[in-house]
Amino acid sequence: MTEAFEVFKTYWIFVVLLALSGVYCVVATRNLIRVLIGMELMTKAATLIIVVGGWVSGRMVLAQALVINLIVVEVVVIAVAAGLVVSLFRKNGSLDTRELKNLKG
Amino acid sequence: MIVTCIVLGLMVLAGLWTVMTRSLVRSAIGLALTSVILTVLMFLLGATMAAVFELSVCAGLITVVFISTISMTKALTHEALLQKTRDRLKRYWYLPALLLVGGAVLAFVLAPLPPGGALPAPATVDFAALKQMIWKERQTDILGQITIIFAGVTGVIVLFKERKGEKE
Amino acid sequence: MPLVFVLVPLIALLAINLPLGSVGRKLGFPTAALLALLQIGAVLAAPGAWLGSPAPSGASGVAPVVGGLKLAFSADRLSLLLLLSIGIAALAALCVARGLERKEDRGGESRFYNLVILAMAGMNGVSLVTDFFSLYIFLEITAVSSYVLIALEREKEGLEGAFKYLILSVIATVMMLTAIGLFLLTTGDTSFAAVAKAVSAGQAGTGASDWTLLLAAGLFTAGLCVKGGLVPFHAWVPDAYSSAPAPVSVLLAGIVTKTTGVYTLIRLAGTVFAGAFHIELIFLVVGILTVVVGALAAMWQKDMKRMLAYSSISQVGYIVLALGAASPLGAAAAAFHLFNHAIFKGQLFVNAAAVEAQTGTRDMDELGGLGSRMPLTSWTSVIAFLSAAGIPPLAGFWSKLLIVLALWKSGHPIFAVAAILASILTLAYFLMLQRKVFFGKSLEKLGSVKEASAWLVVPALVLALVSLAVGLLFPMLWNTILVQVPGI
Lengths: 105, 168, 488
Fold this sequence. Notes:
The complex is a heterotrimer. By secondary structure, chain A is mainly alpha-helical. Helix content of chain A is 82%, strand content 0%. By secondary structure, chain C is mostly helical. Chain C has a domain at 278-488. In chain C, strands 1-2 form a two-stranded antiparallel ribbon. In chain C, helix 6 packs antiparallel against helix 7.
């Protein structure tokens, strides 16, 4: 178990780096679509962690079932998010995140 | 172990490229590339079924979603694009630096196994067991899936439908 | 068979959407309202019938077999309380929507009812699941329905509010998924029971992967704090609440945020993370910060709904603060305040909808003296905010008292005092709201304002009555309902 755990730690580093990239993308971008891309990157990091978790604890079947469910749910979320982005584009005429400053206070 | 580290590194690099690349379309392709490398990793770990799913859905379907979104929202004009690239690099160079520092700190703190240790062979998982798991054990989740698909369809209809008089 | 709470809305949804043409559309409101009423009725009439669904044992998926299906839903008294709140808040939101429906929009309105039914199914699921991953799925159902509901009118404001909610919600989701992965890593299972076992074992000092479990618990809790709009993750709340269409605000403030955020915290704190890792310290600090920041920010607002949004943040802080007491009394107080908040905050948003519908503005500087023109709205508003500020004999007084008592008894007197002081702040900003909007001199341009239509006033009246009734009858209710809640 400990040896597998060591391997997990290696995976963990890279997962964190990937997640960080995703968060950075969401925060630092001025383009609405890039925000979605950043969200997808973060989700990939989470998917990998679930798979690694299943591998380390030996419950690969459960992990795969979870991942498959997760992918379906995330597709729905991204589809709705894309819908929001397209609607925002139609209303604002641009994909600039700085246009989202109407609500303040 | 070395193979895994290399593939992991490739994945993070692909992610980095996805974030930092200038063009939106390249970013979407970068996302697909990251998905492919993730699929490879999942194969290495033994999650074959889920890997196939991930490949077809994330590297396939989601890329299609992104490309259609990009085409539905007309591309920026060349002028605006140039303007954005000028201050873009200023904002984005933080990321690789951040990743390097972060990676170094984490590696130091966690002190993983030095390369050379063997990756324990993953147990082979057969399709029947997975089918059993999804349909018998996690039926609550299946119910949730159905519900969320309805929610998604409703959402897409609401958000994508063009009302008369809205298109200028 | 708590499964019905999720299955019936789904079946109803199918039923009203399959028939093409206008028949299906007209059925939207009655069906949704019927579902909400049934939910309220089912919980009140026969609470015992839903309980006793055996919780799954250690291994995942050992759930009661119902007609060949094995579904891991189980209800306890906390779930029932939430189901009741969901039914009430949904009914209020539906009435407001019906009242604001315009004749020419008949076609599009069915989407609203569909989405509300879906959100109800999602929230019911949240209250009934016994597994972290299923929790994630039903949280996402609720979230997706909310995004679309906020953006329903496809105006700039709503889209923007929905998008901001989306961003933070996805970050929260990723944190929760990572936590689930870590739970899988350390315990090989994602059900509540398994993780609870691992946490209590970890407390005993055994287990090499202690830090992963701690990290997982922390990540999951942080994700829930984002969903619940606690400080410092509350940035999306004012935008989402104020930009959403009026009935959606009622639903959001009344129940959605609370279900996805604090209800799950109450459940986890009580059962799974029971006192582990000094999690109560986090609750105390986050709770009191949320209460104070929310209250202070509310005083500066000009937009009525925005002020109510900050007030909601503040009240949700109270719920988390109560959890910080780490005692059964604290959990009961938290649950009770959750219910009360659904009632009085839902009602305040109904009033806001009425005011906005009749005057066309939410800016409090432009309103004034509506008390004489909209008497019912005004008086129900008074009852609601007295309940919020914790004035006897209304329901809010009792829940705030319980919170303060729980904090005091578990040895955190400073926080108890802070909670009381913050109540004064609450009273202050609500008085300001009342004075600005309802009392005071009447402006000429508001001369033709009349009381809002029945659909908007009746829910307000009913909710106010509930606040009053629960408050007056509280000593009786105490023994029958609330004492049992933490005994999960």
